Amino acid sequence: MRPDRLLAAATLALAAGGAAAQASAPPRDALRLVETWLQAQVAYERVPGVAASIVIGPDVVWRGAFGFADPARRVPVKPDTVFGICSISKLFTAVAVMQLVEDGKLALDDDIGKLLPAFAVRRTDPDSGPISIRSLLTHASGLPREAAASYWTPPDFRFPTREQLLAGLATQQTLSRANERHQYSNLGMALLGEVVATASGLPYATYVQQRILAPLGLADTRPGGPVGEPGPRMAQGFGALRRDGTRQALPPYDARALAPAAGFSSTAEDLARFAAWNFRLRKNGGRELLHVATLREMQRVHWTDPDGKETWGLGFAAWRDGGNDMVAHNGTCPGQLSSLQLALTDEVATVALINANDNRSASRYTRPMRQLVQKGLKLPAPPADGPRLEDYAGSYNEQPLGSEFVVLPWGRDLAALQLPTPDPAGGLQVLRHVGGDRFRVLRDDGSLGAEYGFLRDASGRVTGYREWEQVWLRTAPP
Q: Which residue, 84, 86, 379, 429, could crosslink 416 as a Cys pair with Cβ 3.0–4.6 Å?
């Protein structure tokens, strides 16, 4: 996308994020590089469609959409295309539980066996101790990963009804003692949906709609119902790539009793608003849906596995990444992948929704997007007397040795990146101007490395670059 169009999109996104947006201008160069990188990854990975968004502080600063929601009908993905968000659903269940804790209707150490009379899961260790709400929120309850039904099995993906889920509890047993090991559990979060309904006196979907979605203005987020059902805004889901390069179109599914764990649908725009709420509440304090102290409690580490590899807050995955406290959730369900990451210290959040399965999660997009934006926030403004960096921007052909080489403005410098790459922040080369059309690689220690000399035609237009006497031609301007 041309930079003027990207900036226009960013301006619209800021307006969508709230009329009172007072944050500094978004990092234009980083957003442009994110869009260029993500567009390339979607193409090279043969992903049907992706919708994404970026939040800085309380503001939605960028929204992007690539590919098709329905390739057969050539329906493009848009930022408001509806996807299944899979396990990101758990965050809404966790917020609902914590609201009821604030209301005094639940306590984190309540025993689920006493809250739900139907809870009949056999304990492998009778001396395990109670399975608490806290242990369910941190995935340390010892419960098995799934309910007693084969709902992830194609071709039908038959999720259980509430009655079937509860009846199946009597056939199940714990995997380990409570609070002994991490075991991610869709069953546990589905049971917390039952707890929400019991404690509030409202059906789960009604409670979430009235107490969370409506107050936040998440009009395109639904707590249940068919996902992938044909429609003008719903993304058609696809399976993972087969050896012949094709993907199977998957039928709609309804998570039914597993909706509190994996049954929501939403958009990149709505999830960006949800992320913005997190930053807004943490910054402003007070209460909005939750008291700020409750949100902070949800977003600190409550559980660390004995091997130190898994750390969880209450509903959120929580960990430390460099200088940032991180919280996030990913999701996988038939034909849909989702990811939401929030860097709490830098106040940067990224969202990615994909309408196809893969061996990897959607965090392969949200993590690099976040890292590029975090780098971009530190960029100095270009000097007034510097070179016109836009002259060099574009894609350069590296075939047959490589796919493509992209050069874009990066603060006072140029950013150079080989595409495709799973790690754009790590692979990014910074080129420092040294005179004329000459730039040199800026090393991490501040010294200068290899030289790139850009070439121009008789009209003055940049046509390629020379590195170590090898010439590579520009194939497309930005």
A: 429
